[in-house]
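Can't paste images in this forum, so I'm doing it all in text. The chain is below; anyone willing to post the predicted structure tokens underneath?
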Amino acid sequence: MSPVTAEATTALEAEPRYEICCQNHAIDARSGRHATIIDARSGRHATIEELAPRLNVSGPHRTEPLMCEYREMNTPGTVLHVVLAQWRNDAPSEELAQMREIIARFEAEIPGIVSVVEGASVSTEDLEAGFEWALVVTFQNAGARDGYLDHPTHVPVAAVIGQWAERVVVFDVSA
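Text version of the structure:
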């Protein structure tokens, strides 16, 4: 989920790209995805009310609390599905690249997914214990996670991980 900063939104006013969804989110008109509102000056999450004076919001501005269907990953009931893999030395990079392309479609194709992040570690602590790749999927609830396991978009990803991972850890956490 990409953030909406006050500066980015102001620059886009001539050609509106974001619509306000609720106090904390905007919807990207091009992709239809939610974006968290970030105050670019402080780098922290912000509400539309806090940024409105700097955004020069056009049209009616609602100040009453708004709610949306978007769920953050720490919302009670959400499930974080964490997969760590250490690839075998002979794991074909082309097959891993194809797997990553499939993962990029998870949010669009699998119901109940809030967000997906995958990739190599960027930690500076050097505590990965040999694991070189992670997949973190946030689900709206445990039922969405359960439906994902047998979903036709997920099955080939699980197969690639099963075939080419030297070691794998799957750990689910409920918020």
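The mean pLDDT is 75. The first helix runs from residue 6 to 11.
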